Amino acid sequence: MNTAEMQRQLRALTDRAEITDLMDRYLRSLDDGVFDEEWARAFHTEDVTAEMPIGTVHGRDALLAHIRRGMALFDRTVHLGTNAVIEVDGDRATARGAQLSTHVLADGSGGLFISAGHADTELVRTADGWRISASALRVVWTQGSPPRLPAELAPASAA
Q1: Pairing relation of β-strands 129-144 and 44-52?
Q2: Of 109, 119, 124, 151, whose Cβ has the fewest other Cβ atoms within 10 Å?
Q3: Does the model's pTM come out above 0.85?
Q4: CA distance linking residue 144 with residue 32, whole number of Å
Q5: Residues 85-118, buried b or exposed e (16+ Cβ, 10 A)?
């Protein structure tokens, strides 16, 4: 194996490791519950588009506001991501993985809401490292009672 091929393979492995780390840190951050501008910049491009079961938002500021409101519906959460298939093409990448999310409702009932599905993610390499430029969470099943959504989180008003 020549030096150029070793460098190419090393770059591919490094890219995959950095993307995996970004996605793992993102899911863990949802459970940590600190959603500020630094959080948003650490994971997303300024022009990010995020498609979620409660609507689609465009732009980092809109996503930050939407995540804050959405996560406030839960007292505690655990988000698990696994089986990610990552495809890197230069400074762009895609990832598709399974996601299982467990939520304790904040309505005082102690109720649980569980959802499972697939997360499709587009990423770009920036000067600060890999960032999510688009994501879509496609829920395939749920268990328990979902939280009652306030009007500002209803899917029709999230666009």
Answers
A1: parallel
A2: 151
A3: yes
A4: 23
A5: ebebeeeebebebebebbbebeeeeeeebebebe
Q: Which residues contact 66 (CB under 8 A, 6 or more apart)?
A: 50, 52, 54, 55, 57, 153, 158
Other C-beta atoms lying within 10 Å of the C-beta of residue 69: 16
Q: What is the spatial distance between Cα 82 and Cα 70, in angstroms, rounded to a whole number?
A: 22
pLDDT tens per residue, range 16-29: 999 999 999 999 99
DSSP run (H or E) holding 20: helix 3-32
CA dihedral 38, 39, 43, 47 (to 10 degrees): -70
Residue 115: which H helix or E strand, with range? strand 112-126
Token representation of residue 66: 């939407």
Q: How far is 157 from 41, CA to CA, in rounded Å?
A: 24
Q: Fill in the amino acid letter for 116.
A: A
Can you spell out the DSSP letters for 32-88? HT--SHHHHHHHEEEEEEEEETTEEEESHHHHHHHHHHHHTTEEEEEEEEEEEEEEE
Question: Look-up: residue for tokens 């991501």?
Answer: 81
State CA 146 to chain mean position distance.
19
